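User: Structure please.
Assistant: Input sequence and predicted structure:
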Amino acid sequence: ALRTKKKLEADVIDLGIALEHANAANAESQRNIKIILNNIREIQAKYEDEVRAKAIAQDNLIAADRRANANQNSLEEGRTLLEQSDRNRRMIEQELGDTNETLSDQTCQNQAISGAKMKCEQEMNNLGHDLDEMSSEAHMSEEKAQRAMIDAARLADELRAEQEMAMMLER
């Protein structure tokens, strides 16, 4: 029994030592569990931050896509407006060319008409001078005709007087 007792005491001591080792290992495990739990909490917080950041990034990506689409639409609209304005510019340039050609034609016509007008005015001046000369000549001819009529009337009076005298002398 003593042997058994010694063996049991040795077993108790061994079990005590094993218990101490187990308690120390348990305490170490508890510390490791706390460290791991803290690490898990930190990782979970980082994960949640990353999830939030990912959600924000996705929202930003969606907003950027919308802006890109809006910019693309604006670009297409700008191109369309540019093409329209280019067509309008070419059309206006054509109209300007036509207008310049018309202006040139009308300028030529105007110069021709001005030349004809000057020629007509010159002809009118010449005709006016001719008319003045003819009026002057007609006036002088009328004066000569009046003098001639006066002379003829005087000569007729003289002739009558001579005839009367000749008739009186014959009697």
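The radius of gyration is 70 Å.
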